[in-house]
Amino acid sequence: MTSQALVVGVDLGGTKISTALVDVNGQIIAHDYRETQADKGQAVVIDRMLDAVRQVMEQADIPKAQVRAVGIGAPGPLDIHAGVVIAPPNLPGWRDVPLKELIEERVGIKTFLENDANAAALAEHRFGAGQGCDHVIYVTVSTGVGGGLILDGKLYHGAEGAAGEVGHITILPNGPLCGCGNRGCLEALASGTAIAKRAREVVSRGAPTVIAELADGDPERITAKLVAEAAEQGDFEARKILSEAMNYLGIGIASLVNLFNPQVIVIGGGLSNLGERLLEPVRRGVARHAFAAPARTVQVVLAELGDKSGVLGAAAAALTQIEREISFKIS
Amino acid sequence: MTSQALVVGVDLGGTKISTALVDVNGQIIAHDYRETQADKGQAVVIDRMLDAVRQVMEQADIPKAQVRAVGIGAPGPLDIHAGVVIAPPNLPGWRDVPLKELIEERVGIKTFLENDANAAALAEHRFGAGQGCDHVIYVTVSTGVGGGLILDGKLYHGAEGAAGEVGHITILPNGPLCGCGNRGCLEALASGTAIAKRAREVVSRGAPTVIAELADGDPERITAKLVAEAAEQGDFEARKILSEAMNYLGIGIASLVNLFNPQVIVIGGGLSNLGERLLEPVRRGVARHAFAAPARTVQVVLAELGDKSGVLGAAAAALTQIEREISFKIS
Question: Which residues of B touch A261 (CB under 8 A)?
Answer without folding.
Answer: 157-163
